[in-house]
Amino acid sequence: MKKLIFATLLVIGNIACTEESTVKPNTTSTGTTTGTGTTTGTGGTTTTATDYSTNVIKAFTAYGAKNVSSVTVDGDYILIKTNGVPDHKSPYFKGSAWESTLYVNDTRSSFKQAPGSYVAAINYTFKIPKAPVESSSKKTLGTATIGVALNGVPLFNQYAAGNTTISVGTGEYVSFDLYGGHPSPNLDYHYHIEPNFITTAKGSDALIGYLLDGFPVYGSKENGKTVTNADLDAYHGHTTKTAEYPNGIYHYHTTSEAPFINGNGFFGTAGTWTK
User: The dihedral of CA 123, 124, 125, 130: what is its sign?
Assistant: First the structure.
């Protein structure tokens, strides 16, 4: 009888330990769910990750950029295919295939057009997690492509060539066109700062795109308040409810000063991009 009682207590103790090990004080917030999976988050704790593929596909479909050819699910990832050509006018369309319809002269005294640069169509595939969670090993990034806007244009971080931080009103910043973008020397048009063509049309609090870790990026306002760097963490984001994610999700915001879109690396585990 003693052996039976001891064995019973041992089983109960093991069950209690198992239940305790799955307690998740920092689990990913839920949203529109099409499926779930498990992954490892900070400190090695097991968390249940929400599949947000429905949200992502809906966001790109609703925006309706012609240059985004497809947004599909492939296993644990969402594939976003685009040619990267912006859906707004720019002085950088001069000399391009779209000059007759999309070129505009930028007459701002502060604007200094990058010589020899123009918009080119480049076939990109962005592969982002459909169930993003916080990474346990966040890494600082140098000059890098960090995500994609809803209009299919790549998002870059706050570093210019040579890994120097871009400063407002000087250096590379003055080559940004009316909507905050410019081509690289390889002719791929991109944004380092808020793509204000999107936020002018949709609102300063609008969803503007996704970073490679699968977390969304919003404009410079939230609940009627302008977001500053002091409101955000080291990765330039925080967790709150949003219109697209009413149960809350970690997300990034654009701000008017560096790091503009993303801080010291990705909050989650980044996917990949190719061109």
Answer: negative
> Using one digit for the tens of pLDDT, what is the confidence trace for 14-28?
333 333 222 222 333
DSSP 75-122: TTEEEEEE----SS-BGGGTTSTTHHHHB-----TT--PPTT------
CA–CA distance, 206 with 191 (Å, rounded to integer)? 16
Task: With CA atoms as reference, report the closest residue to 172 among 236, 258, 97.
Answer: 258
The answer to whether 129 and 28 have CB atoms below 8 angstroms apart is no
Closest alpha carbon to 260 in 180, 199, 187, 205: 180
Q: What is the pTM of this model?
A: 0.84
Give tens-digit pLDDT for 202-219.
999 999 999 999 999 999
| CA 215 to the chain's CA centroid | 5
Q: Which of 246, 245, 216 is nearest to 236 (CA)?
A: 216
The tokens for 232 are: 């955000």
Contact 262, 275 (CB under 8 A): no
